[in-house]
Amino acid sequence: MQSTTDQATLELREATTPEPGPRQLLVRMRAASLNRGEFIVGHGLQKAGTSKAIGMEGAGEIVKLGAGVAGLALGQRVMGRCAGAFAEYALMDEREAIAMPANVSWEEGASIPLVFLVVHDMLVGQGKLKPGEWVLVTGVSSGVGVAALQAAKALGAKVIGTSGSQEKLDRLKPLGLDLGLCTRKGDFQDAVMKATGGTGVNLVVNTVGGSVFAECVRSMAFEGRLATVGYVDGVLKSEIDIQALHAKRLTLFGVSNKVRSAEQRAAGVPAFVADFLPLIAAGRIRPVIDRVYPFDQLAAARQHMESNRHLGKIVLSMEKS
Length: 321
Description:
alpha/beta, Quinone Oxidoreductase, Chain A, domain 1, seven-stranded mixed beta sheet, six-stranded parallel beta sheet, 11 helices
């Protein structure tokens, strides 16, 4: 992908098959999923005026092991975060490689690593979510939003979600959405308070950004936690009610890998495997896939994503037709 100051363009290129270095795997990629942030110029994932191989997560089988790799084998099915996943072959850090349960398809495996590791960080790592607590997910029909809904329900929580599409909210009801609020504005506090018996929500997952931040704070319960994971609205600033923050003992935290080291990113994988992989293997968490595109139709997949018509993940398949 090449970036100018205001737009990013895609270009398919031939490249040599990379060689795995120490503690790396060469993976024959079978599927990879799209993530909105990497297509947004200035979002921090790519600087204007540069080009790079894109794709941030995928699934495939190991075809070569670098020096020092232990506990993984040639031919093993793995999923994980990796740079340049939109390719036939990609390198994966062994610490990021997650063995795929037998019931998980390539497309599902490609939809798990990035979003569900982020969701684990939000709900379990920093969010300390407990069974019976209330979760509010703004932009619940996004990839991260749907994953947060699924994981929160699997952990025994109750979920309120906002979306600008009533049709998408209706489609999420079978996944356990307790209350869907059709809105893109910061106007949901009254409905949230009514649903929670006046106490507010224990955890907020804000995928929208600054335009709803203040309303999220107003919707929080005593000792509530608020995770900021995105700002698709482009609003990067919002007022903070210091009195509410103080009196209700609120916790505000961000969820991002932009400035974390490889070691810091990988540190969360074992806990994710322990907490979420059994739920995935048991079918209690199953990625929602909106559409699968062939490898050579990445531009069409991106266009579909940017149209905002999708629900859940959009996947690129490297399988030969």
